[in-house]
Amino acid sequence: MAAAEKTADKNMGGARAPFYAPVSDECDIFEAAERHGLPLLLKGPTGCGKTRFVSHMAVRLGRPLYTVACHDDLSAADLVGRYLLKGGETVWVDGPLTRAVREGAICYLDEVVEARKDVTVVLHPLTDDRRILPLDKTGEEIEAAPGFMLVASYNPGYQNILKTLKPSTRQRFLSIDFDFPTHDREIEIVTRESGLDVSRTTSLVRLANKLRGLKGQDLEEGVSTRLVIYCATLIEDGMSVDRAIRAAMIEPLSDDEDVKRGLMDLVTAIYG
């Protein structure tokens, strides 16, 4: 089946899958990983559709999904669980990873490199043929229920010596490299998501690609497809093009006034 033919809102078990337009064979790879219980790593820039892809596939496959937004303070205990006081008693409460392991659900760790280092230690036994989750605090060793799948994502563009995945961790996962959609596909996505007409969407996507070309020069990161959709949504709602672009595609990229003026000069060159 061609990629375009897979672009659909699928109603699975009463839930409608979030719209996702495949750009390659990522849906096939996800489905194969899910069938065989293989862990999957999604790599790509912010706002290119990684989280939307996972949500789409979970509904498409009719699978429960636990999503964890990783951050600097996220520890292994936040994932696996901890003892808490309830009604004067100390009881064990499973974390999202443990619930997914017990239930045979999909657990998605968004921006996994942002989490504390002890998180990867917990993941290792789940990403090889053992498929177990040891709970040191309770003495349990939970074997992953059929259907459990571990999915993680990160943005290689933000890697540094302190925030990266070790090769020993990366090589436990299948991996898909995500990027922004092609010009025509991005127009399709933004038009569909915002309701803005194709002619005006085309100009926004052209601008976004010009801004992405400045990554590594004046900008740390290019304009995400998410921001283009936000901008198109504002314009469709009646906001002026200039104000919508400034709010959705310029201000989020930089706090430097000189940089923002330079970006607005680029907007003027494209829009006149």
Automatic annotation (TrEMBL):
It holds the Pfam family AAA_5. SUPFAM superfamilies: P-loop containing nucleoside triphosphate hydrolases. Gene3D superfamilies: P-loop containing nucleotide triphosphate hydrolases (3.40.50.300). InterPro entries: ATPase_dyneun-rel_AAA (IPR011704), CbbQ/NirQ/NorQ/GpvN (IPR050764), CbbQ_C (IPR013615), P-loop_NTPase (IPR027417). Residues 39-173 form the ATPase dynein-related AAA domain. It comes from the Bacteria. Keywords: ATP-binding, Nucleotide-binding. Signal peptide: none annotated. GO terms for molecular function: ATP binding; ATP hydrolysis activity. Residues 186-269 form the CbbQ/NirQ/NorQ C-terminal domain. Coiled coil: none annotated. Belongs to the CbbQ/NirQ/NorQ/GpvN family. This is Denitrification regulatory protein NirQ. It comes from Aliiroseovarius pelagivivens.
